[in-house]
Amino acid sequence: FLAEVRLVDIVQGRDRCGAHDPSEMWANDSCHKIQESLLSSASGYNNYRGILNWCVVMLVLSNARLFLENLLRYGVLVDPIQVISLFLNDPYSWPAACLVIVSNVFVLVALYTERQLELVGYLVHCINMATILTFPAAVVLLVPSVTPAGGAFVLGVYTILFLKLYSYKDVNMWCRELSTAKAKKLFNGGNRTVCYPGNLTIRDMFYFVFAPTLCYELNFPRSPKIRMSFLLRRLFEMVRCLISWMIPVIQSSMKPLEDMDLSRMFERLLRLAVPNHLLWLVFFYCFFHSSMNFTAELLRFGDRQFYKDWWNSETVTYFWQNWNIPVHKWCLRHFYKPLLRRGFSKIVSQSAVFFLSAFFHEYLVSVPLRMFRLWAFMGMMVQLPLAWFVGRFLRGNYGNAAVWISLIIGQPFAVLMYVHDYYVLHYRQEAD
Amino acid sequence: FLAEVRLVDIVQGRDRCGAHDPSEMWANDSCHKIQESLLSSASGYNNYRGILNWCVVMLVLSNARLFLENLLRYGVLVDPIQVISLFLNDPYSWPAACLVIVSNVFVLVALYTERQLELVGYLVHCINMATILTFPAAVVLLVPSVTPAGGAFVLGVYTILFLKLYSYKDVNMWCRELSTAKAKKLFNGGNRTVCYPGNLTIRDMFYFVFAPTLCYELNFPRSPKIRMSFLLRRLFEMVRCLISWMIPVIQSSMKPLEDMDLSRMFERLLRLAVPNHLLWLVFFYCFFHSSMNFTAELLRFGDRQFYKDWWNSETVTYFWQNWNIPVHKWCLRHFYKPLLRRGFSKIVSQSAVFFLSAFFHEYLVSVPLRMFRLWAFMGMMVQLPLAWFVGRFLRGNYGNAAVWISLIIGQPFAVLMYVHDYYVLHYRQEAD
């Protein structure tokens, strides 16, 4: 009778799982139940790890075809001398490299300032910070042998240093605000944490300078050991990205500049919207995943959250809060929250953060190109009304699509503006 | 003192969340903790819904550019008469449409066989099933005005019908195996379920024929009502897929055939590996998501599981078990489990399923093209060693990448073989 009930069950479409008796097997076979398709948003399903792998496979495959074609047609494309010439004009003068080496002076000044008395120290600190931003900019603008790529690299290094030293000074100030005696009493236990004056060493300072974070802490979380295989995989990714993506695309984007033909360059760059976006994605992976994880592994730096799930962002704000976590953390800790504490409203503080970000974007683009057009600044400030619009009118997957479109279309537009102006400024004049 | 402890907390890198007092806000700001990056497989994170949206946005954008370019260059490309000519040679003879209409005869035969006595019924049933497979194949092979596209469509319809009627007969047989009296007693409650002889109606039969499933049940789960907006969105997707993807790609793949130049066609098809894969993905979405959901919504058919998360499949077996759920369900219920019950081992039964699938793949390709090359058959049978290899040697994301590569590379290879042979058979002879 039981077997019959089971038989009735399947025929009527009910399920009783778990029958392993082979004679009952065909009976344990309910067919349909009410459920949504996985791709319907109603299903709430969102495990698409495979789609990410698909993207990587497609990138590698289409890249391999291109690579083979180029290799057959032109031989080895990557010319190391040409790559170096992006950064150097004159092989006997290395202004960018010198500037990077000089940056150590500012690091040491910041360290020794912290060791000195408060009032003079504060003045020296202010001068130091101002110099970090103005000195390399002045050198880049005045020394003609600095190339745009070299200049951008140097200014990037100095900007990161500026943010790091600002954080360093803030945290040490907070430490001084504590009565150090009490802090010592609290933390002289055996758990090997460092207390305020004990952290002012050259070793600690340079660990912070090289660590993949912008926010200073006296005791960073450390991973137990360096995993060799992890290190090698990240290194392999970096080399692969650089060789098979960055360099060919940069070289091919140099070609229209060499042709000096405005209309062709314009058309070409419009066509480059999608490659530009792919390049940005590869850059993101190479920098924020591969190289930062590489550095962190090497330094046994425990906190590997360099980005969050910005690919799912349904508002522009979410994207900006999650794609670059080190900068976001810095802005929150040393800019946004201090502003809130001083009584500014949330909207004013948020706008101030965007304004600061816009300033640095402009600084990193205009100075190396030696032209001030405010496109990068505008590009960042436009994010504010865009964020309002997307947050107000679009939800869920539509909001996500809007964020993607703004990334794919917006970025090459700004790039196009600069390339166009750079061309007009440098080559049109020569042609006349 | 408490504020000082909090201050010590941030300086030492500890967190106490939840302080909303603005004066303590800067203190509630722990910076770093040990954690992995999201893209590291160690993080176990897998919400990539945004990547799916990215793919859709990229497809639509690149498609829009192509569409605009073509529109500017050639005007409206989609010529309905040309599309129809894929299915029809002679506008006064519609063999494919006639065959589809004739298929109703077999449905009615299957229904009336179930109403008749057992022994004669079984014989009629066997003849009926055999005719469903052989009759359309014979017509397609013998009537010269059947085009390959029309033939494939007809054979597809008849194959689906074959699987459905096989399931219909099986389930009704299971019902007869029950003593129907007992079943009636059990299920004559008021919950409106139908019992065995009561289901043998024309209405019930045709609901099953049109329902998006291959497995018969007496009482399908039904959704409460037809959602108009859902229906329209699926319809819109189907039309968009058809107009902006399927037809242009099919037309452009017809061109090399018209050129009758073997070397160019070969090169072109090699280049079409990625477009072919994209087309397959669009076909998958259009057929398994849009059109099946559309039909299900129209028929208030509740079970919308037409596919599972095959995109995450880390073994070939997982892919074949999850990409086409209606066929997989049928194979499991009416072929694999009956074989197991008859005492065959798991491996033999699995191989038999692949063999059956290979037979139908070959049937659906060879007969409409009127040439028997066994490429489709081999393509399916090759999956067995491939599944063994991937399952044995590759894990996680590497296995997933292997499945993707076999999809991207394997499919166009088989297509290429058929196109090449078709060309040699039909055009080389004419050229000589």
From TrEMBL, chains A, B:
Active site: H361
A Pfam family this chain is assigned to: MBOAT
Keyword Transferase set for record: yes
Signal peptide residues on this chain, from the entry's feature table: none
Family: Belongs to the membrane-bound acyltransferase family. Sterol o-acyltransferase subfamily.
PANTHER family: O-ACYLTRANSFERASE, STEROL O-ACYLTRANSFERASE
Name recorded for this polypeptide: O-acyltransferase
Provenance organism: Scophthalmus maximus (Turbot)
Lineage: Eukaryota, Metazoa, Chordata, Craniata, Vertebrata
